[in-house]
Write a sequence for this structure.
């Protein structure tokens, strides 16, 4: 293996520490495995006891980790793990294990088969539990790993800070991470707009994705991760680590000198807003000078919920955020359920061969209008009596019909400022039709790029195509930004300092990003005029490839180099 591995840097910063891998798949215990004289002396009672003890140990472990997450302020983590502990203790499951062992099946195989039966039973009970299957598999694998003495799957435990290495990370994996323990993320899969990348940026953790061979790194080997350059250096010297850290610190202090609301050098205001997934992200947003929230990903509040959140719970989660910005705006996105963010209480209608092209976002709201109505009502109650401006937008809008339907639901609920995300190419191309229905747009460049380039956000091998610098993507931004309504960008493109300038040059009126990117973008805008931004935009659109667009834009944005960006 070479000393330096190259992937795609998606969250800047330097992090050094030992590799801790999310363990690979737990193998299926062979069919026909039976307990006999060689184990527990053929004693079915003893075999049953070790199987049930393994399930109980898994439940207790999950519960204990949940309590630790809560003690560290991560109550979402406790809820996720608590729900899994309940599943592990399900009496129906224990009965299934007992019955299998009674038939002579060995403990590990009995656990495997009992879960299989349980899964089928749940599937037979409706689509409702489709999204729980991963949780069930996780509990099953943990119990089998215990019984077979294999490494525990899932996020590793460690007393010292570590570099988390995985094939890919799901939002539910990262819900239980202690940010103080993880110094960097490295994944083999996942593109620059995957949720791994978004979560890393939100947590302010350096990250490299789409790194070929990441999962072949040995557990415990020390690495230095450079989240800007996209490199992972094996066995770095102390000097390497010191140099990387001081470069990051120097840049941070240069950037910290630019403060105040976002604006170009010649004074064109460009409000700089934060992308958040819940009240827990407010602290970082405020610390980085966010002027409001430009994207509240409300589905992140309910990723592991089997039942719809109560009205009171929703109201509180929204009110806390609105209260944090008394002079600002808060743009709340209605639930973007589906694809890589399944919500158990909003099931897909069935197997979807291409979930990213399936029922997600507004399409799911059309299927479950009652859930949308409850969310809108909770938002209106949350905003009552507060001074923050509440704006509400729908994800995955395709045409003017979608937009008109959403605006009508907002009107009925008393939401004053409806908007839509522009993240489907059809919507971008017909932005004028859609602008007639709503008050504002917010361009989701992550999905817009995925759909324009036909490159799934989850697939690491396609990172090259998941690049919002693709001139075709810029060509789709332009009509949306020129459609006559205020138009922000809330995809990850807004947090790239050079691209942020280009977007402003294309006519975008506000930018919303993960909190740690705010100082970078604030500094980049403050050092360039609107005219320079327009020239950079023109140059990027005239280019033929993403790499050429990036290079061409930078020739009009000279201060980026001075800022080390
Ligand atoms: C986007 O698609 O750009 C976006 C902001 O939404 P999400 O990343 O949550 O899909
Ligand atoms: Mg999106």
């Amino acid at each position: 293996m070479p000393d330096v591995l190259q992937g795609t840097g998606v969250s800047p910063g330097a992090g050094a520490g030992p590799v801790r891998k999310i363990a690979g798949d737990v193998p299926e215990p062979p069919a026909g495995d039976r307990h006999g004289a060689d184990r527990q002396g053929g004693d079915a009672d003893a075999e049953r006891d070790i199987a049930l003890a393994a399930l109980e140990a898994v439940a207790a472990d999950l519960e204990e980790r949940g309590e630790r997450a809560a003690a560290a302020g991560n109550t979402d983590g406790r809820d996720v793990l608590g729900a899994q502990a309940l599943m592990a203790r399900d009496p129906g499951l224990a009965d299934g294990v007992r019955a299998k062992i009674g038939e002579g099946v060995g403990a590990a195989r009995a656990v495997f088969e009992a879960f299989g039966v349980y899964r089928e039973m749940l599937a037979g009970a409706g689509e409702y539990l489709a999204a729980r299957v991963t949780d069930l598999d996780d509990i099953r694998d943990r119990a089998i790993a215990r019984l077979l003495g294999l490494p525990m799957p899932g996020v590793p435990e460690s007393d010292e800070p570590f570099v988390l290495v995985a094939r890919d990370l799901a939002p539910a994996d990262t819900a239980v991470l202690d940010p103080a323990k993880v110094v960097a993320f490295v994944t083999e899969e996942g593109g620059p707009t995957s949720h791994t990348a978004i979560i890393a940026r939100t947590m302010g953790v350096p990250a490299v994705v789409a790194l070929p061979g990441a999962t072949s790194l040995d557990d415990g080997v020390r690495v230095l991760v450079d989240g800007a350059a996209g490199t992972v250096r094996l066995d770095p010297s102390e000097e390497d680590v010191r140099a990387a850290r001081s470069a990051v610190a120097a840049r941070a202090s240069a950037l910290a000198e630019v403060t105040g609301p976002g604006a170009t050098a010649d004074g064109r205001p460009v409000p700089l807003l934060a992308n958040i997934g819940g009240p827990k992200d407010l602290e970082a947003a405020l610390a980085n000078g966010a002027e409001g929230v430009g994207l509240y990903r409300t589905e992140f509040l309910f990723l592991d919920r089997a039942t719809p959140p109560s009205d009171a719970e929703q109201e509180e989660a929204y009110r806390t955020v609105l209260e944090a910005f008394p002079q600002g705006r808060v743009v709340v996105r209605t639930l973007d359920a589906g694809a890589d963010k399944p919500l158990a209480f909003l099931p897909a209608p069935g197997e979807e061969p291409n979930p990213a092209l399936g029922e997600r976002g507004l399409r799911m709201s059309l299927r479950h209008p009652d859930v949308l109505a409850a969310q809108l009502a909770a938002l209106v109650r949350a905003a009552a009596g507060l001074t923050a401006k509440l704006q509400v937008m729908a994800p995955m809008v395709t045409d003017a019909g979608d937009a008109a339907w959403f605006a009508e639901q907002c009107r009925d609920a008393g939401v004053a400022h409806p908007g839509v995300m522009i993240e489907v190419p059809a919507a971008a191309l017909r932005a004028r039709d859609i602008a007639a229905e709503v008050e504002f747009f917010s361009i989701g460049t992550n999905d817009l790029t995925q759909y324009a380039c036909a490159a799934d956000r989850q697939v690491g091998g396609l990172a090259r195509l998941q690049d919002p610098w693709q001139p075709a993507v810029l060509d789709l931004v332009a009509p949306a930004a020129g459609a006559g309504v205020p138009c922000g960008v809330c995809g990850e493109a807004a947090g790239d300092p050079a691209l942020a300038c280009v977007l402003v040059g294309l006519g975008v009126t506000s930018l919303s990003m993960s909190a740690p990117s705010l100082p970078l973008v604030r500094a980049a805008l403050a050092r360039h005029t609107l005219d320079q931004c327009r020239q950079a935009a023109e140059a990027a659109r005239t280019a033929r490839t993403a790499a050429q667009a990036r290079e061409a834009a930078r020739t009009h944005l000279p201060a980026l180099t001075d800022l080390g960006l």
Summary: The CA atoms of residues 440 and 485 lie 5 Å apart. The chain has a mean pLDDT of 89. The chain has two domains: 25-148, 267-563.
